[in-house]
């Protein structure tokens, strides 16, 4: 019995577009557009099942209900089954898509927004920017492989963009946590949205939670992918019983979800994860 998380909507590649040296846009046409619906979140993500039942999570760059098409921007870096598939994908190739889900939830009183993204999160950040209303102040700090990967977007927002070249993205440790620590945030109530490598996202979350003292409604910070995944999974398997026990103990003690996450993050760091 499939769940909402399972890819169940049949689709096929309609077209491909070369966006930059590191990004390729693939448009999928849904076999039954009426059965699929956007979550309405600009950072919505879904699972794509392709090839030999291989699954990966990607941001919906654009959803067109009239044509029943979904645009996904794929990072086409060297290595990786999904990147290889995206580089070679041709019209007619079948896939299956899951229901989309997003996390972007700025509080209504936010006077400004800070978006932190590596290449994997750039499509979501772009869609957020394009949908912001006039007068919204937003600063995007984007970590990309090379200058040719920079993009421009049409937006009514008051947009500032800082590009970080040749850092993170599987090449070097992410520079986003250090950038955040080194820069003073704007005055007044704000909102931070961040997505990228899991270890970097954990550092960003720790800074926002502990050094800045922000509460959960003022930020959404996601890990989209894991660097050195095989080593990470092997090490996590060794400490998984302790992590699960810690989680249950914290919940039983009446800790909030954020406090539980803080404790788990500390335990993962101590385990070298």
From TrEMBL:
Write down what this protein is called.
Answer: NADPH-dependent ferric siderophore reductase, contains FAD-binding and SIP domains
Domain (FAD-binding FR-type) ranges: 6-107
An example Gene Ontology molecular-function term: oxidoreductase activity
Q: Superkingdom of the source?
A: Bacteria
Q: Which SUPFAM superfamilies match?
A: Riboflavin synthase domain-like (SSF63380)
């Amino acid at each position: 019995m499939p769940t909402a998380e399972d890819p169940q909507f049949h689709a096929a590649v309609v077209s491909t577009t070369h966006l930059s040296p590191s990004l390729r846009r693939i448009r999928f046409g849904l076999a039954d557009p009426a059965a699929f619906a956007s979550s309405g979140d600009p950072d919505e993500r879904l699972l794509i099942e392709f090839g030999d039942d291989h699954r990966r999570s990607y941001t919906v760059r654009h959803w067109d209900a009239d044509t029943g098409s979904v645009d996904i921007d794929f990072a086409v870096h060297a290595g990786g089954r999904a990147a290889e598939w995206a580089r070679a994908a041709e019209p007619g190739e079948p896939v299956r898509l899951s229901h989309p889900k997003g996390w972007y939830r700025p509080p209504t009183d936010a006077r400004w927004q800070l978006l932190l993204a590596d290449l994997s999160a750039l499509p979501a950040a772009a869609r957020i920017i394009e949908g912001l209303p006039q007068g919204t102040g937003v600063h995007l700090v984007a970590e990309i492989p090379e200058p040719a990967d920079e993009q421009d977007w049409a937006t009514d927002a008051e947009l500032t963009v800082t590009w970080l070249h040749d850092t993170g993205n599987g090449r070097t440790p992410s520079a986003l946590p250090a950038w955040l620590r080194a820069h003073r945030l704007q005055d007044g109530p704000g909102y931070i949205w961040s997505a990228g490598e899991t270890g970097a996202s954990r550092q960003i979350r720790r800074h926002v939670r502990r050094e800045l003292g922000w509460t959960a409604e003022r930020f959404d910070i996601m890990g989209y992918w894991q660097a050195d995944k095989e080593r990470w999974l092997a090490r996590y398997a060794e400490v998984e019983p302790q992590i699960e026990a810690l989680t249950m103990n914290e919940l039983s003690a009446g800790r909030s979800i954020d406090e539980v996450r803080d404790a788990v993050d500390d335990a993962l760091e101590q385990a070298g994860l």
